[in-house]
Amino acid sequence: MEKEGTRMMNHLHLSRPAALSHDAGRRRLWLLVGAAVLAAALVGSAARPIGAGAAKEGDHQVSGGGRTIIEGGGPGLVPVTTVLAFHANGQGGDFECLALMPPVATSFSPESGDFEVHAMYVTGKVTSVSVRDGTAVLHGTATVTGIGAGANLPFTFVAQAGGPGTTAALTVSGSTFHEILLEGQITVH
Hints:
By secondary structure, the protein is α+β, with helices and mostly antiparallel strands. It has one helix at 2-55; strands spanning 62-70, 81-89, 92-101, 117-132, 135-146, 150-160, 167-172, 175-188. An eight-stranded antiparallel β-barrel has the order 1-2-3-4-5-6-7-8.
């Protein structure tokens, strides 16, 4: 019996290095597979932003909407508010701005807070967008009714990203209108 136990111990002793060798080979294989997967993940994550950035080079996205007030109002200190909506990217976009004023010509009457008279409407196609430091510059052509009426008129709209208090300026029909956003949001990417 002792002879058989010694044989068994010898067998275990002899087969153990082979088992360890097999386990070490398996560990080495898994270590290599893990390293390869990690390397692929690192290369993939590093390549994605470069590829995405290169694909979007010059393809900025700008959008916004809300209600503004024209700085200084219209002629005779008449307050003027606008309803503004736009979206644009490197492929183009749309621009809408409806200016409303009170039904009376003075800002000191009880009706001066009723913004229901159409002063100007600008509707157009954005043909180019540039973005720098959170400010977007949109260029395009528009149809204008009311003040400065005309068709296919060039316009430029400069807007800063932000919410209420953000500023914007619309240049069309030879005039520039400086606006302050009262409600809404302008997003620049």
